[in-house]
Fold:
Amino acid sequence: MKPEWLEVRERIVSDPLVCHGAPVVKGTRVMVSVILGALAAGETHETLLKDYPRVTEEDIRACLLFGALIADYRVYDLRDVRGGVLVGQPMIVGGRCRAVTSNIRHSGDMWRLN
Structure:
């Protein structure tokens, strides 16, 4: 069985030249947000498959999984940490933050785990 993120990565892509970089179903311009929004509004999978013929049932499940993975996204606020190392997290060195793992990105005062 493939890891969840790999299943999503095979079906959901982002390209700055397609829909301004919004995540879309691979090979289409159908944005994940459109699929998730339609499902949230009560549309059925069958209706979506009819409305978007290039989207498959597996694509719809990948959109749902993408939404679940995004909802599990963590933001770590390190403004209150003074001179220590958080295991697997950014390290505070001389008042500056430095990532010690490759899956963390800095955004303003916040560190975001990829």
